[in-house]
Design a protein that fits this description.
Shape: globular
Number of helices: 0
Helix content: under 10%
Number of strands: 11
Low-confidence stretches: none
Protein name: Replication activator protein Pra
Organism: Streptomyces spirodelae
Structural class: mainly beta
Oligomer: single chain
């Protein structure tokens, strides 16, 4: 599986859109997905990426140990070691594809003061 490191501009900002929930590996059993190397439980959350006057919604997978205390809706964060992982599969004869995002952790960041962003 190809992993592509995501380069971020210094001005790129992320904001928490949904709180982390366990990533489910098997819908039938409810088994939580685990990191292949460490066996640690994985969680997903939605963040909003804001860059150059545009905003984009992203779902990111993070191991449990990479989730900081104090994580809440609307809090500014920065993904650490963010990778994009292209995927494709055939289900019921139909091709589905997309990009999954994975970070080793999230860092809480200070919100910019009014007037700082975009100047």
């Amino acid at each position: 599986m190809a992993r592509i490191r995501v380069g971020l501009l210094p001005s790129t900002m992320f904001m928490v859109g949904t709180l982390p929930v366990p990533k489910i590996a098997d819908q039938e059993t409810g088994k939580i997905a685990q990191d292949r190397d460490t066996g640690e439980d994985l969680f997903t959350l939605t963040v909003f990426l804001m860059e150059d006057g545009r905003a984009e919604q992203m779902k990111i997978t993070v191991p449990k140990s990479g989730l900081p205390d104090g994580l809440n809706l609307g809090i500014p964060v920065r993904p650490v070691d963010l990778f994009a992982i292209p995927w494709a599969r055939i289900f019921n004869g139909q091709l589905s594809d997309g990009i999954a995002y994975r970070a080793s952790s999230l860092e809480l960041t200070a919100a910019p003061q009014l007037g700082e962003a975009g100047q």
